[in-house]
């Protein structure tokens, strides 16, 4: 192979890889940005279900906080019972919450030495 043939081969490979990269961007880009949010609705929607649900399962609870147990941990109550929840300070966003405030808490079931709790990743004030 002489120098001019090698140059043409490299030039063709460059065009092919550029074309392949463009196709990959065009086909792959929008598909990954089409959907946001959780992939399925939470199976756990009542405080009583937290005791028997799987670790890591998604939760969406509607009720109110009854008391602060310790820093960032509270007792949450709905019509079916109480469950411990962990809510990080950033999620409050400066809102004033009382025991009469109706909330929707979304998160995952976790456990520690004190038992199961809901690690909250979204707090929505309903009233």
Automatic annotation (TrEMBL):
Keywords: Signal. Residues 1-33 form the signal peptide. This is NirD/YgiW/YdeI family stress tolerance protein. The keyword Cell inner membrane does not apply. SUPFAM superfamilies: Hypothetical protein YgiW. InterPro entries: BOBF_sf, CarO-like.
């Amino acid at each position: 192979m002489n120098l001019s043939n090698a140059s043409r081969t490299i030039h063709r490979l460059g065009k092919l890889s550029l074309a392949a990269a463009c196709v990959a961007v065009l086909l792959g880009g929008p598909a990954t940005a089409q959907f946001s949010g959780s992939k399925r609705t939470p199976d756990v929607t009542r405080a009583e279900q937290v005791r028997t649900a799987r670790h890591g399962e998604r939760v969406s609870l509607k009720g109110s906080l009854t008391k602060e147990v310790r820093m960032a941990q509270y007792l949450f109550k709905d019509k079916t019972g109480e469950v411990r929840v962990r809510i990080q300070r950033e999620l409050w966003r400066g809102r004033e919450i009382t025991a009469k405030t109706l909330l929707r808490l979304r998160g995952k079931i976790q456990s520690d030495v004190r038992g199961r709790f809901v690690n909250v990743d979204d707090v929505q004030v309903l009233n």
